[in-house]
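ok so for the tutorial part 2 we go from a plain amino acid sequence to predicted structure tokens. step 1 is just haveing the sequence, like this:
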Amino acid sequence: MKPHETLPYTELPDYSDADRIERSRVFYEAMKTRRTCRYFADDPVPRAVIENAILAAGTAPNGANHQPWHFAVIATPEKKKALRAAAEEEERAFYESKAGEEWLEALAPLGTDADKPFLETAPYLIVIFGQRKGGMKPGETKQNYYVSESVGIATGILITALHDAGLATLTHTPNPMKFLNRLCDRPANEKPMMILVVGKPAANATVPVHATIKKPLDQIASWL
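step 2 — the prediction. this is what the tokens look like for a chain of 224 residues:
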């Protein structure tokens, strides 16, 4: 590699092979319980939990270490109500005219429609933006790289951290989403990627049977 400033690699625990297998199995068993939730309780959740999960997301690998993401956390009833109204307007257009028959057929087993009450009920909505321009320092306008890939990895870590803290999540992607820039006071060069709904599941929350069906290992992996 070309000369550059370095530090020692962070020391990892020296597990035995048996320990690594067991730890990976336990992690899989924990993550296997993760479910997308559409029925949230309005119970409060400590802000520190959300902050720690976002900090964990910020450790994600990313292009040139520019960390091209921003997480806008919405918690006030007024903001949540405004977001729901705007999102449902887009959703009605989607279900009434934009989505083709094949798409609607694919969604049918999940029971989704244009009504999104969880956007007001859940204590937190995290709007995730990808930054086309930025860099590492405030005020920079450098080109960012691999923005979608970087934000996708960070979002996966965010969802995992929230699940590990015992919280339910839902990824919501109204289309188009440009209204989120205005609602969250974010600049035009940031692209809204999704809304992550976060909170405790309602006592009577249910999960579509269709959502519990996961492809087996031999369908999602190959060994070359």
